[in-house]
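Open question from group meeting: does this chain pack into something compact, or does most of it stay loose? Before anyone orders reagents, we agreed to write out a predicted structure and look at it together. Recording both the input and the output here so the notebook holds the full record.
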Amino acid sequence: MVGRHLVAAGMLIDEDPERALVHARYARERAARVPVVREAAGLTAYHAGEWAEALSELRAVRRMSGGNAHVAVMADCERALGRPERALELAKEAGRDLPPEVSVELRIVSAGARRDMGQLDAAVVGLQGPDLDPKRRDPWSARLFYAYADNLAAAGRAEEAITWFLNAAQADDDEDTDAAERAFELGADESEIAAALPGDTLEIEDDEDTDADEPTEDTAADETSEPELAGTTEEKTAGAAASESTQVTEAGEETAKSAATEGAQTAAGADQSAGEPTPTAVAREESAVAEGSQTTAESDRSAGGSTRVAEAGTAGSAATDKSPEDGGGSRG
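Structure tokens returned:
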């Protein structure tokens, strides 16, 4: 049952993070000693804008399993709580021995913290490095170039900012940023943008309110009661969603979708056991849903249990990175 709620949280985290958080909290209450459950709860809280809760959960994950996989997310939470100095302290404590994607995301967050403190030039310098090369095409290049351009613009260096926004747009194959539009706003003409983006047609959106009527759902249910799981349509499409890989960004970010999918099997074992669940390290690669289903079934037969965990999965850096793009952090 815990695993099913983790899966539901992963499926809803992009479209309805508040509702996803209800499921993650339910799972956390029933398997609080399983690291992957706490990780999913922390990342879901981060996406829902519950900064203090996210920070608390991710601190617990670090105590349980060690490592700094989510240090950039933790630092960004400190920024959001109005403590940029503490964000810089976390970055210093993490040291240099970090995976490259986590290191880049932490630099982006640190630059945002310095910008919050009015240290605009220091924010620009903090993003410079060998990977700040317009010829590079790393998974994090578009975000790094965008953050650098954004901080250049904040420091009043508009011409350089235009150049780096165009570099970011060129590296942004997935069109996750509004780099081309930002370059246009700073004074780049359409010919410059067309030269940077050959074969693409740039559409500059008008600044008009497009109030789309989006349905909302009441998620203020009693937290002690079990939240409703996803419907049958979602369950049918769960296998396809789980096969999609998610990109780690900002923060150091394994997404909550990945954590939720990986946690389904671990949490199911916690449900079946009468004792305390054993903490497990968080896997870094998603398993195919079919394989996970077989493994869970075999475990159920050997333990004599009857619990069946519905599986599904979703992506999204950060890791970096659902937060507003101010160029300063996983939220940016």
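Observations to bring back to the group:
The first helix runs from residue 2 to 12.
The two ends are 35 Å apart (CA to CA).
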